[in-house]
Write a structure and sequence with these properties.
By secondary structure, the chain is an all-alpha fold. It has 2 domains: 40 residues; 68 residues, no CATH class. The longest helix has 18 residues. It is flat and about 40 Å long. The model has no long low-confidence stretch (mean pLDDT 85).
């Protein structure tokens, strides 16, 4: 199941890169369904989907996916939280909300890793 989900993820990114956002969204939503059916957590896929929605101007819909991704990442693999946070900041910027982007931990902290705070 993982191979099928991953291939749909790659296809979704390809569709988006070639200017077919509707097909990209469909492929990434299928990636999530397949991943969940196979017992995998689609943490980054939700962020990718949020990025596409945000790029299309569906800011709230994009942020919803990103928040789901962030919750999954925080509970399962906190080291990966920077990915949804970066996408979240990008969606805020794309939506014209500079204040929200600046408040994002990615923009307001020198590093998300406490061991690197001295840098």
């Amino acid at each position: 199941m993982w191979g099928l989900a991953h291939s749909r993820w790659l296809l979704g990114h390809s569709y988006f890169e070639y200017g077919h956002p509707d097909q990209a969204i469909e492929a990434l939503e299928e990636t999530i369904r397949l991943g969940e059916a196979g017992g995998f957590v689609p943490m980054t896929t939700r962020s990718d989907l949020g990025w596409i929605y945000g790029g299309l101007g569906a800011i709230e819909r994009g942020l919803k996916q990103i928040h789901l991704s962030l919750a999954e990442t925080e509970s399962l693999l906190p080291e990966w939280r920077s990915y949804p946070l970066v996408i979240q900041a990008w969606v805020h910027l794309g939506g014209g909300d500079l204040a929200a982007a600046e408040a994002d931990p990615v923009c307001s902290q020198p590093s998300l890793n406490p061991a690197w705070q001295h840098l």
